[in-house]
Amino acid sequence: MISINGLTKHYGRVKALRNVTMDVRKGEVFGLLGPNGSGKTTTIRLLLGMLKPTSGRAEVAGYECWKQSLDVRRHVSYLPGELRLYGHMSGFGLLKFLSDLRGGAGLDRAVAIADSIMKLDLRRKVRTFSTGMKQKLALAQAFADPVDILILDEPTSALDPSARQDVLALVAQARSAGQTVVFSGHVLSEVEQVADRVAIMRKGELMHVEDMHARRNLRMILLRFEGEPPESFPSELMLQVRDRQGETILLEHRGEAPPLLQWLGSQRVLDLAIGTEDLRALYDQYHGPNVKDDPNEATVS
Amino acid sequence: MTALIALVRKQLSESRWLLGISALALFGLSWLFVYASNRIEREDRRRSDSEFYMRRGGIARAIGGASADNSSTSLEIAWWRHPFVILIVAMWPIARGSASVAGELEKGSLDMVLSRPISRNAFLTSQILSACVGMAVLSFALVAGNQVANRFNFIQSPPGLMAALRPGLNAMALAFSMFGFTLALSSFDIVRWRPNLLGSAITLAMFIALIVSGIPSLDEWKWLENFSIFKAYDPVDAALGASRLGSNTAVLGGIGMTCLLIGYIAFNRRDLPSSS
User: Fold this and answer.
1) Which of B107, B113, B274 sits opposite A45 (nearest CB)?
2) Which chain B residues touch A45 with a CB distance below 8 Å?
3) Which residues contact A273 (CB under 8 A, 6 or more apart)?
4) Which of A169, A205, B172, B192 can pair with B139 through a Cys bridge, CB separation 3.0 to 4.6 Å?
5) A156-to-A55, A186, A188, B88 alpha-carbon distances in Å
6) What is the C-alpha radius of gyration for chain A, rounded to an integer number of angstroms?
7) pTM, full prediction
8) What secondary structure does DSSP assign to B195-233, as a single string?
9) Nearest CA of chain B to the CA of A258: how many Å?
10) Per the CB < 8 Å rule, is A70 touching B108?
11) Is B17 on the interface with A (CB under 8 A)?
12) Any idea of the CA torsion for B218, B224, B226, B228, to the nearest 10 degrees?
């Protein structure tokens, strides 16, 4: 649905995006993660044809993003990260205006979402709305647009916890309806909750793409053996050594549980702990306090 | 078409106060000019006919330029070159021109609009259409103020509707050229204050150029008028015989159109960075 190949964007001497290659599949929720200045918004603006790539190519729904940006935008609904709405309009007026820009489509659904889910008084002027209410209003329009792709740049940044859950539910609903969602954000737990795959960006580079379904099956196993731990493990168990310290070993397991349990029963294990690893641990590999300026090569799992 | 109309309505709605107050001010000024003309004529009626016409014509030429004659129409319409009128006529096109691209970009509202299926050409066209509607309203306010005031103030031979509409058209063409170069500047920029400042500075410089070139003791600076759009703003000529209205409108319209073309090209080729 979205294909990015060697995409690069320089602003003068500033390299905002460097040779990014990735794809977003039809019907998936794709999370874009990274701190401010990592290139998320630049990527999104390139996809919408607001910026001209320095080199490389991006396609959305088969259309080239710069030269055919109008066709791209027919298929995309976008929620900007830096949201600025027209304060002189009423809530309903703004929804109608945005809907008119798409030929009048989606107004009824936008009003329904704003009214029943976001609980907004659409008769009020937008200038009297709080930041969170403005965000809800724009989200109502984004989710109402009859499009194939939703691009949401930090959609929950100004929302209260219950509204955040509403938005995540709407994202899941959009995926169920077959829409593709690109979702950028800083709150890892939210991205973890809804994303099918996640890309981690750093200083304009794509560092890692993670399949979240595989990650949800990931178990971290800490074992203390009686004596030296084995040097290698049966390959069918899909175990990888993360750390080894004397009699203790930390393993990463992505396979089925029963064969693992059977194997553990045959070992001289004194103690064990099984847990999961959240997205934070992965994110910290690229943005944690111990990361040096020259990061590892990009990886895909 | 729905989208274009929605954009024009939005732009007019967000600048309705500026437009409304400017139109009211022009209507009032136009009325005031008729009242002033009435007072001049009333005072002069005590003099002999030849003195009366000479004095009236002198005032009209001093304000309205060389095209003015001794007629009442000349005296009334000459005031349309008063700096107050120019100032108010210039405010709208410069404000709308600078708001068109740089203003929307600076506010961050361009993101919401251009993420919808609206081409950049359509967006800019809507800006031009709304600015033109405003210019028409302002010109009409000048004409309406004149025509209504003539019903309440005795003037020897007041201008008819057509005679007042022609200088109105000239004023609209002047505003269009100002809008053109401000929009062109705005199409390159990311902040509104710069095209606003530059547009105002260029307008002021051209106005000063016209004044300097018209001072009799500064004949060697006469050439300066060729660099002023105000040379093509001659409301008195437009009202009296319109001998140069066609060429003046073509010059002002041509400047405006050329600048708009530059604006279209620049806007279509440029990056639209985020407002942060």
Assistant:
1) B274
2) 272-274
3) A221, A222
4) B172
5) 32, 9, 12, 45
6) 23
7) 0.85
8) HHHHHHHHHHHHHHHHHHHH-GGGGGGGGGGGG-GGGG-
9) 50
10) no
11) no
12) -110
Q: Inspect the interface and report whether the beta carbons of B7 and A101 lie closer than 8 Å.
A: yes
Say if the Cβ atoms of B2 and A11 lie within 8 Å.
Answer: no
Instruction: Flag whether residue B18 sits within 8 Å of chain A, measured between CB atoms.
Output: no
Residue-level pLDDT, tens digit, chain A, 301 residues: 899 999 999 988 888 899 999 999 999 999 998 888 888 889 999 999 999 999 999 999 999 999 999 999 999 999 988 788 888 899 999 999 999 999 888 888 999 988 888 888 889 999 998 888 888 899 899 988 889 999 998 888 878 888 888 888 888 889 999 999 998 888 888 888 888 899 989 888 898 898 887 777 788 888 888 888 888 888 887 888 888 888 899 888 877 788 888 888 888 888 888 887 777 777 877 777 766 665 444 444 4
Whether residue A86 lies within 8 A of chain B, CB to CB, comes out as yes
Distance of CA A56 to the CA centre of its chain: 22
CA distance A131 to B36: 53
Q: Do B117 and A52 touch (CB under 8 A)?
A: no
Return d(Cα A129, Cα B51) in angstroms, integer: 67
Task: Locate B184 and state its tokens.
Answer: 């062109």
A104 touching B (Cβ < 8 Å): yes
Task: Tell me which DSSP letter residue A237 carries.
Answer: G
Here the tokens at position B39 are 């007072």
Interhelix angle for B161-188 vs B193-214, to 10°? 130
Give the residue on B whose Cα is nearest the Cα of A54. B271
Nearest to B14 among A74, A78, A88 (CB): A88
Q: How far apart are CA A77 and CA A94, in angstroms?
A: 15
pLDDT digits (tens, 9 = 90+) for A200-233: 898 888 988 988 877 777 888 888 888 888 888 8
The answer to whether residue A138 neighbours chain B at the CB level (below 8 Å) is yes
Of A74, A81, A86, the CB nearest to B10: A86
Say yes or no: B112 contacts chain A, CB-CB below 8 A.
Answer: yes
